[in-house]
Amino acid sequence: MKMLRNLVCSAALAGFVATGAMADGHGWNLKDAAAPYAGTTVDVVFLLRPGYEAIEAMLPKFEEETGIKINIIKHPYENALGEQVRDFVAGGDLDIALIDLVWIGNFAENDWIVPVDRIKADYPDIIDPDLDMDDFFPLVLNAFGGWNDTIYGLPFDNYSGLMFYNKKMLADAGFDGPPKTWDELMNVYGPALTKDGKYAYALQSKRNETQSADSFARMLWPFGGSFLDEKFRSNLMSVESQTGLKFRQELMKYMPDGIVAYDHAETVNAFSQGDVAMITEWSAFYSTVVDPKTSKVAADVGIAPEPMGPAGRKPALGGFSLAVAEQADEKEKAAAWLFIQWATSKANAGEYLKRGGVPARQSAYADPALAETYTFIPALVESWKDGVPEFRPRFAEWPEITEIVQEWGTKMMLGEVTTEEGAKEIGTRMESVLDAAGYYSGKKPLAQ
Q1: Can you tell me the distance from the alpha carbon of 220 to that of 309, in angstroms, rounded to the nearest whole number?
Q2: Domain 160-316+391-437 CATH assignment equals 3.40.1710.10
Q3: In 3D, which of 273, 265, 306 has the Cα closest to residue 182?
Q4: Looking at residue 202, what DSSP letter applies?
Q5: At CB < 8 A and 24+ separation, what contacts does 249-252 make?
Q6: pLDDT tens digits for 281-291?
Q7: DSSP 3-state assignment of 304?
Q8: Could you tell me the CATH superfamily of domain 2-152+318-385?
Q9: pTM value surpassing 0.85
């Protein structure tokens, strides 16, 4: 298996050996473009996740070729937004913004980040002729890096919700594959797989953005629900939204005790230890669950798209972009762009994938042989073609609203309030935030 992995990866990487190789044909190369900025230090926040470790492992090649130093400040996800906001408000040292797709409105409307078109206009000599913005999956580029028809960032740490399943546990229970629908998971797989201290499913639901995005939102869209209706009013009391939230409550009987305290680490570990047969998790955790050093079930991992609901297949969508910070000086802006362009390039996508990252480049997945090694690829590509751009509302006020969803979504799961009571409370508070921001008075448009 290791030999196969190396052979496939070698073939995939054959055209991507050197950072500047593909661009040389255009009379452009990274070393020459970076020469005026050698010695510049660029500060950026990274998370403690596989995609960041992948780029960090590749970084010496970039620093050697460009003379640019990348200073990485590591934070857990829960601290990353607050730390960056404080830095930008204070006019601090960050030269690159790491932006969750639900943060971009906040960053763009506060003028903390520079549009890509302005970088192109101001620094034409550092733009790789092979940048090829059309090579990014359109859904991912626009959701992660776009705001009000302007692209600010390039997709970096890219996620789609996938179903990870234990082929052996399912086969032992008489199944030849994963459930195709959420109803099947609940009513057929749930009872058959929840026994002897093992559970059919785990839904990461800890009271932070995990509750809002990975748990609450995941159960709205497949059932036809949503946070907001077309008038930007709460849609959480609709029949469809309530069906999804009630489904989540009932599904908990097939999840481990204490599931409300499970973050990504606990959920992935429960699956990797063979205690849970299925999880819906981000594609970024693929490298963890198939690694024999971290997973007891590595040889038995299967990957499928998330199940379908009454409204169709509506997989979770999440991820980040990297954007140049407005507060950086001119040399730092150029050096920051060179790093962003390099880290998200077609030339490096193959190696990034090999090291555990998930590139957003369509060309990275063009070789059918790659799917034999990276078995998440077909499901990922399907999800990014058919995903929901507004999986979570993308407006500047989301950081305030997510706190409301986290509190009351958790109370629902704990049985402290009914789904109706919780939905009413979230809806009232959410609309209050939007009203104060000017959406209902016409000061802000109802769509971004």
Answers
A1: 10
A2: no
A3: 306
A4: E
A5: 249/412, 249/413, 249/415, 249/419, 250/186, 251/185, 251/186, 251/190, 251/201, 251/203, 252/413
A6: 998 899 899 99
A7: strand
A8: Periplasmic binding protein-like II (3.40.190.10)
A9: no
